[in-house]
Amino acid sequence: MDQILNFIGENIQMVYIVILSIFVGVEIIGKVPAVLHTPLMSGANAIHGVVIVGAIIVLLNYHGDNVFVLVLGFLAVFLGTLNVVGGFVVTDRMLEMFKKKKK
Question: Three-state SS across the chain?
Answer without folding.
Answer: CHHHHHHHHHCHHHHHHHHHHHHHHHHHHHCCCHHHHHHHHHHHHHCCHHHHHHHHHHHHHCCCCCHHHHHHHHHHHHHHHHHHHHHHHHHHHHHHHCCCCCC
